[in-house]
Request: fold
Amino acid sequence: MVRHRPAWQICLTALSLALILIACNNQTPTPAPTALPIGPTSIATIGSSIGNPTTGLSAEVHDTVIKLTWQSMSGAAGYFVYRDGNEKPLNPKPIAETVYEDIGLTNGRSYTYTVAAADAAGQPGPQSAPITAIPTSH
Reply:
């Protein structure tokens, strides 16, 4: 024989659970911890020691290739090349040269590039002004 709970017990259990849920949802959220002061070191000095963006970025287009060149920068240990606003550079490590060939591109498609100088620790500085180029077959 199956025993059933009386309706009043079921209602009381449901009411208790509802009150627990309401109490949990109405709790005051715990405030986020505040950042500890880091002393005289500012956040700006934690990144790259390169303060100015690379200048003179230009592009030469070829069949499925865009050749980029830019001006050398004093204090730069190398350079990172970025395409189409991507946060990750095309080259995983800084290159020492002031020229980069992006190969295997689609002719007729527009590509936008920026270059950032890297300091001795390999940290990129600010990115250059963007330049857009479209590879084409001659």
Summary: The chain has two helices and seven strands.
